[in-house]
Amino acid sequence: MSRICYATGKRKTSVAKVWLSPGSGKIIINGKPLDEFLGGLEAIKMRLRQPLNVCSQIEAVDIKAKVAGGGYSAQADAVRHGISKALVEFDADFRKELKPFGLLTRDARRVERKKYGRRKARRSPQFSKR
Questions:
Q1: pLDDT value for 3
Q2: What number of CA atoms fall less than 13 Å from residue 49's CA on the CB side?
Q3: Which of 86, 81, 122 is nearest to 104 (CA)?
Q4: Closest Cα partner for 7 from 88, 69, 77, 76?
Q5: Domain extents in the chain
Q6: Where are the alpha helices (DSSP H) in the chain?
Q7: Which of 15, 39, 86, 99 has its CA 20 to 30 A from that of 107?
Q8: How far from chain centre, in Å, is Cα 21?
Q9: How far is 84 from 18, CA to CA, in rounded Å?
Q10: Rounded to an integer, what distance in angstroms lies between the CA atom of residue 79 and that of residue 73?
Q11: Interaxial angle between packed helices 42-54 and 72-90, expressed in degrees from 0 to 180 and rounded to the nearest 10
C-alpha cells in the first residue's frame, strides 16, 4: 500500500504542510532530517514525535514536511498537528488514540496585538504623580 496522506498543521503563525507515506521512519522537514532541523532540542523532538509514538507508527511511516512562519518551537508544534491529522487520514482508527492526548486540536493561542496608548498589549505607561 503506497498511499500518501496530506494534512496541514498550524500553531501561532506557523503553518506546516505534511505528507505521510508508508516507509521506515524518516522525518524530513524543509529538506533536512529532523536532527539537523532541530539540532540538540530533544524535548521539542519528542513533542514532534508524540503522535507517532501514541499510534505505534514511529518505524512504519515516512514524513516529509514544509513549514514556514514563527519560531522553531511553534514550527515543531505545527508539524506535530499536521502529523496527527495525516495519521487520521491514513487510518481512521488512529482518531480514538490521538483524541484523548489533544493532538487533533489546533492550539489557537496567538500573540495579542498592541493597543494605542499602551506600551505593549496591556502594559500601561508608567504613572507619574508629579
A1: 85
A2: 21
A3: 81
A4: 88
A5: 5-101
A6: 34-38, 42-54, 72-90, 95-98
A7: 39
A8: 18
A9: 10
A10: 10
A11: 10
Residue that has been written with the C-alpha cell 519528542 in this structure:
46
Residue 2 pLDDT greater than 70, yes or no: no
Torsion over CA of 106, 71, 65 and 56, rounded to 10 degrees? -60
CATH code given to domain 5-101: 3.30.230.10
Angle (nearest 5°) at CA 60 between 47 and 31: 65
Report which residue type is found at 81: H
Distance CA 121, CA 70 (A): 19
Q: Which three cell numbers stand for residue 62?
A: 515516512
CB 103 within 8 Å of CB 60? no
